[in-house]
Design a protein that fits this description.
This protein folds into two domains: about 25-105, membrane protein fhac (Ubiquitin-like (UB roll)), CATH 3.10.20.310; about 110-240, Cell division protein FtsQ/DivIB (Rossmann fold, 3-Layer(aba) Sandwich), CATH 3.40.50. It is about 30% helix and about 30% strand. The chain has seven helices and 14 strands. The protein has a nine-stranded mixed β-sheet with strand order 8-7-6-9-10-11-12-13-14. The longest helix has 19 residues, at about 5-25.
């Protein structure tokens, strides 16, 4: 029996679409909604109402009285796309829909082109708002390398002394990184990120020993320097006030 190839192709296409309809069935049915948050060491700054207000798919169904149908995958993507959400997972069990939300946590704050942003730990931008204010390192500068900045910030956070000391960092394309400490109104010229641990040790030496020198702080408590430089190996260079 001779089979018409054109007809056979149409049958295959129609059959594939029919089967695909079952495989990619997206609508799910639920009558109860629960929003839960992943707990971690960061303070929680969002709640269920934030999710409901900022996700159009959910806003249409809250408050709800009757069972509803909703696209599960679309809902998951819609919530994950909210700026303060890092990840969202949607589960259906016994007609109850559970949404597990992982908050997007500020890792450091930076300013670029006159606008302030937060970066999460992966270096992705998130808006800085009154809702997510966090005491994190502040970065500013000419040209900034996001991956390098995140690595530098992570090293500072992991060192208890540096974490408590440094409040802000500026990047200058000619000088490199400049640290702004909480103790003493000075600049710490750090340079590039090579030999970070050794540079950290020299900053600790300055605050532990050198800063007690009378030529740096006089008997009246006046600070006689405007900056220290740890760019160069095995050196701490102090620049005096004019």
């Amino acid at each position: 029996m001779k089979i018409d190839k054109g007809r056979l192709f149409k049958i295959i296409v129609i059959s594939s679409i029919f089967c695909l309809g079952f495989v990619l069935k997206k609508d799910i049915h639920f009558s109860n909604l629960s929003i839960k948050f992943v707990e971690n060491e960061f303070p929680n700054y969002i709640d269920s109402l934030d999710i409901l207000n900022d996700c159009p798919l959910l806003l249409d169904y809250y408050p709800y009285s009757d069972s509803i149908d909703i696209n599960k995958k679309l809902l998951e993507d819609s919530i994950t796309n909210i700026d303060y959400v890092y990840n969202a997972e949607v589960y259906l069990h016994d007609n109850s829909l559970t949404i597990l939300v992982e908050q997007n946590n500020p890792f450091l704050r930076f300013e670029q082109f006159g606008q302030s942003y937060y970066l999460n730990q992966e270096g992705k931008k998130m808006l800085a708002t009154n809702m997510n204010l966090a005491d994190v390192l502040f970065f500013s500068g000419d040209t900034m390398y996001i991956n390098q900045i995140c690595d530098l910030a992570n090293c500072i956070y992991q060192d208890s002394f540096m974490n408590s000391l440094i409040k802000g960092i500026h990047f200058d394309k000619d000088i490199g990184y400049i640290f702004y400490p909480r103790i003493f109104d000075i600049e710490i010229i750090f340079g590039d990120t090579l030999g970070m641990k050794n540079k950290f040790d020299r900053i600790k030496t300055f605050y532990g020993k050198v800063s007690k020198n009378s030529s740096i702080i006089d008997d009246l408590g006046n600070l006689n320097i405007m900056s220290i430089n740890v760019k160069y190996e095995n050196q701490i260079i102090c620049q005096k006030n004019n």
